[in-house]
User: Fold these one by one.
Assistant:
Number 1:
Amino acid sequence: MFNYRLIRRVLLILLLLVFGVVKSYGYEIFYPGEKKSVTTYDYGLFIGKARNSESITINNVKIPTASNGAFAHSVKLEDGENRIFIRSGYSTKVYNVFKKTEVPKIQSEIKEFDKRTVLVKNDTTPLRKAPEDVGFNIVSYLFKGTRIVINGADDEYYRVFLAKDKTAWILKSDVEECADGSIASFINMNSQKYKNANVQTISFTKNLPYTVEDGEKEILFRIYNPELSDTSVYTLNILKPKRYYYNVTLQDGAYTFKVSEVPKTYEGCTIVVDAGHGGSQNGAMGCLGDAEKDINLKIALELQQLLKQKGANVVMTRECDGMITLKDRIKIAKVNEADIYLSIHMNSIGNVAFSHSKHRGTGIYYFNRNSKELSEILLKSITKSAGTKKNGIKTASFAVIRPASYVGVLIETAYMINPSDTLLYTQENFARNVAEGIINGLDEFIEK
Ligand SMILES: [Zn+2]
């Protein structure tokens, strides 16, 4: 005789299993992409999309989801193995994150040696305040063939002697030995005023190092001749207009320092619109599994249209889903003599704890002092037009906004990993609204 109770039990278990399999598609995790990973970060971020009615827990913490299912949560990592359980209904996904402890860098000692002259190998070589690769310690970008005096070393860097009490640092690999022992001498100086620019030139018989300081009312360019004497410093002060940028060129020992004013009309103003990432570089990934590069391009194309209508000279770094290096983006701006550079991005977070209120909305980044005002104006105008929260303006050392030869800002329009922001930026008219916000800000910046 059949054991009906057993059969019923087996059927029930089978039913539960089938139900469980179906339920396991109730949510997707888009980041991290791998179930096993190694990191040195303090936090691990998990983003994804749940079916509307699903409730998600990560290590037994209930995670809030937006009405489109988007969720984000970061888990504090302990040293070594971390097991993270993501549960929804009958489905559990397990992630293994191994946290490696970072070995602190041992402070090396500066090795002193007698002064000797070396040559800079390439253009755009950073001269730094300290022997470390941090954007904010760059004092100037030296040109190929510049003679510099070194008298100390720290790990990968040489200490550069500029003048009495004035030193800087340069990568050892950026210089080569110099056979020419003769010392540079001053030739002449000249200053000229144009409609939109103040230009000063100073000539020496050899290429000497320089530094720039963007002061309160003027820009100070200093040229050093340490081989002649430790007080041989030439200072050129150039008054700056309210909205400005500057260029430095060096040709056969002759420096040209040019401080320009941003045009006061769209006509005659060259604006570079830079859609971040592209091609194989997706940029940030959103809770919905979408790629940053696509949203950036959408906004950039809307902006291109509006700027053309205004009569500006618009230059795009990309108009389709293609790969372009940061170097090439900057080159495009320089070749076209950009007045303004607008880099369009969407935000994400790195190794910090995700916060729904903090990591939300529009943030504007700038590097040079000349770009702070535009950042403030754009923060107001974009948030007003696009309905995003004000995340603030910040300084950041991003390659495309480091040059001082244009007013450059990087716009982080909204957070792709913030569930509330995903509701905003997936709306049909979002790109248009952001572009209009940027135009409103530019109207104020250019034409005021
Ligand atoms: Zn980006």
Number 2:
Amino acid sequence: MSHAIPLTTNNGNALNSRAPLKVAIIGGGLVGSLAALSFARRGHEVHLYEYREDIRRAELVQGRSINLALSQRGRKALAEVGLEQEVLATAIPMRGRMLHDIKGNRTVVIYDPCTNQCLYSVGRKYLNEVLLNAGEKFPNIHRHFEHKLNYVNFNEGRMEFKRAPSKEIVEDNADLIVGCDGAFSTVRQQMVRAPGFNYSQEYIEHGYLELCIPAKDGEFQMPENYLHIWPRDEFMMIALPNQDKSFTVTLSMPFKVFKTIRSSEDLLNFFHKYYADAVPLIGKERLIKDFFKSRPQHLVSVKCYPYHYGSKALILGDAAHAMVPYYGQGLNAGMEDCTLLLSLFNQPNLSTAEILEQFTELRWRDAHAICDLAMYNYVEMRDLTKRLSFRWRKWLDTQLFRWFPNFWVPLYNSVSFTSMPYSQCIANRKWQDKLLQNVLISASLAFVAMTAFKYYGGFQTITL
Ligand SMILES: Cc1cc2nc3c(=O)[nH]c(=O)nc-3n(C[C@H](O)[C@H](O)[C@H](O)COP(=O)(O)OP(=O)(O)OC[C@H]3O[C@@H](n4cnc5c(N)ncnc54)[C@H](O)[C@@H]3O)c2cc1C
């Protein structure tokens, strides 16, 4: 057990009434650096182990997606550690989807015309830096970059790391090991061996590749306050704005389609056919260079249960519930994990074992639900958004939300702009669908009855 450390925040408020633990956070990505900060604020002795070099010193950041859509759950978690405003100050609000059809026509679908809530495009590197910098104020956070976790013994709380570049093996131990080491988590791999641990993963047959629409004359080339989507049935492209006035473009499509594009000519033909309006924005040369410079990345969805091992270990973020990125919720859900976990740590009567057990029980349904929703939204984004039925439903949802804001919260709003448990968001949508279906059936029956009445002069005529 570590020595006692101040149980106060920067402004002197006591945050913790339990004995401080030595907590090892594995993974200094977005969720790991937030978790480190959250534990440190409660006075725990935190050791943050990260495989890569310090992102603040790295010139080229290897990793997924340059920018991310931050929404309510992530904002709430950032607010809890006093960082929401700092992050939002440089984030770019995205008020809706701007759909680009195959002819280059653009249509705007506002996310929330009733209360004007929006998503925020934030740089992954910037967000990680803000979280790590905030941790510098806490002497009880010890950072260990270039330490790759190799092995964990949960019962003994013992961990083994390989240091880069020397490959020296380093050992440490902790009271609590928190795996925030992403979709291919080593901590989770060790948990899988424990009896009773259920685990499933699914790779989708689509991959993604990042391109860029650069700034032109120091300005954005498209309206910046939207998430741009080019829905094309089997595949799609999206673009999020960056601070430097460029857009990061993510092209998603089946690997088998990627494989058909072998030459610059194939690529330009493909883009002229499906994304003609994007070609002058990206620029032909840049398109060819960026497309062939990297290979399409795989996307995996992970579900598991439980998230803890006794009183010794826990997994959070992508380590616990990696999902396909199409609801823009992976990070938001991971940050919400921290909110829930630390709210349990605030309950003085719970032991660490009880906290971890409750975390699993309170979280798994919602984590599984958002993995499912993310899969569903992939279909919605690439296909449904351009259908009339989708737009009609969006219009109806908006009207009902406007009239009954406490009763009728549309699915997208509940996921992105509230902290409603994800499983409840799905349940809500189910009863809304049922209600609309019943109204539609009743309206159709009424219409048939009225038509019959008009043509046959009354119901008796029909029955005779
Ligand atoms: C293309 C794409 C777009 C996305 N867009 C969005 C979005 O708009 N909104 C959103 O909310 N989410 C989005 N996501 C999801 C989001 O990126 C993840 O949910 C989020 O990064 C998860 O954070 P994490 O800290 O759990 O894991 P990661 O970000 O993967 O971080 C894990 C960290 O652990 C380290 N690590 C791994 N193994 C070890 C080891 N053995 N020892 C030590 N350290 C280790 C890694 O180096 C890394 O730094 C997107 C994902 C993708 C792929």
